[in-house]
Amino acid sequence: MTLAARLSLGCIADDYTGASDLANTLTRAGLRTVQTIGVPADDLALPEVDAVVVSLKSRSIEAGLAVSRSRAAEAWLRGRGAGHVLFKICSTFDSTDAGNIGPVMDALRADSGEAVVLVTPAFPETGRTVYQGNLFVGAVPLNESPLKDHPLNPMRDSNLVRVLARQSKTQIGLVDLATVTRGADAVRARLAELSGKGIGAAVIDAVFDRDLETIGLVAAGHRLSVGASGIGLGLARALVSTGEVKSTTASSAAGAPVGGSAACLAGSCSQATLQQIAKAEAVMPVLHLDPDGIITGAGEAQRALEWAKPRVVDGPVLIASSSASDQVAALQARHGRDAVGLAIEHAMADIAEGLVQAGVKRLVVAGGETSGAVVDRLKIPGFLVGVEIAAGVPVLRAVGAEKGDMLLALKSGNFGGAEFFTDALGLMR
Ligand SMILES: Nc1ncnc2c1ncn2[C@@H]1O[C@H](COP(=O)(O)OP(=O)(O)OP(=O)(O)O)[C@@H](O)[C@H]1O
Ligand SMILES: O=C(O)[C@@H](O)C(=O)CO
What we know:
The chain has 429 residues and is an alpha/beta fold. It is built from 15 helices and 18 strands. The strands form 2 sheets. A 15-stranded mixed β-sheet has the order 9-10-5-11-4-1-3-2-16-17-18-15-12-14-13, sandwiched between helices. The radius of gyration is 21 Å and the shape is globular. It catalyses: 3-dehydro-D-erythronate + ATP = 3-dehydro-4-O-phospho-D-erythronate + ADP + H(+); 3-dehydro-L-erythronate + ATP = 3-dehydro-4-O-phospho-L-erythronate + ADP + H(+). It holds the Pfam family SBD_N. Its EC number is 2.7.1.217.
């Protein structure tokens, strides 16, 4: 692997769509960025880069495993000279009280010797803002947003100081918007004050990109931060403005067409994805899987492939497991939350594998866990970032994949406009 003399920024993302969202943001801000799936093998050929985003599938797994995988990624990134590591979490802070943001942050903090860690999931471009430590999704607090019914990580408390305090061993402080507005020195002074009180992490408010630029300038002087693409934007702009990184125009990594057939898979049950599926019905054949059938092992994946194979020859198709929140809850009550999630992810991976064997080379996947299951099954080791389809979702070109050249789009559940599937396919040639 070829890297810049010293990696300027190392990132660990807790899911694959989140990783491509961050890689997209860093690329657009001028950093040469690559997304790897897990810690890359030494023989993976990659271009020279300023930033590496190591994608993990650690958001909804047991906390101890999330910690050990994140620490291995951190060791790899530090070994390549990364002075700053960003732990990329979801902009809707997806994690239950037994969740992994706190434990991973604590472990990385101990490894990096960081006194106080800046934490913010703000990503104003997608409507995620933080005020007085409360996360807003568009106009409503997190606990009133559709995230309250997330299949794996229902979010019922919008106060992130409280949420993180329930997960972390350190005390959690707040850097409020008034302080951020006063600039980088005011933020540094507040952090020194918190650190003097033995507080090890601080949720920091951000409403506009300019707040994230201030935060980025401060964070760049630290070893570790935790947040979503917004703090990535701030860090990238700080690295460019201080001359640490020479800005590069976003590459056309998705450049040469790959041809082949195209398909979309949706495992996300977010309202955005449900609306996108409904829109897709008008323009491509859509198959709705029977989630109960998947769990009871009734050959749903095989049935889906038999349906899809003759159709993909003529044009893109969409296969979706997604259901509305009341049906998700009913299914989980019958079979258990984890069993349902895993069985459907497994079926989606089976379908993706079958589709690729049938000649699909352009694949759009909706949902972070779903994308993780699919990309793992296809054994794709990394991605170069191409054009942006929607905020937080780029076209990705697989590198080092056994199946050869492929384009993918990994859509975070809540991202993209109503026509997302057609928008994506229009840019994936
Ligand atoms: N009909 C369904 N009923 C219950 N669970 C489902 C159903 N369809 C999919 N799932 C499961 O719900 C989970 C959806 O998570 P996923 O991360 O893929 O989407 P998301 O949370 O909307 O996206 P993101 O994490 O990017 O925000 C997966 O574990 C998936 O297997
Ligand atoms: O930050 C986000 O919202 C996304 O990148 C994501 O992580 C969803 O899985």
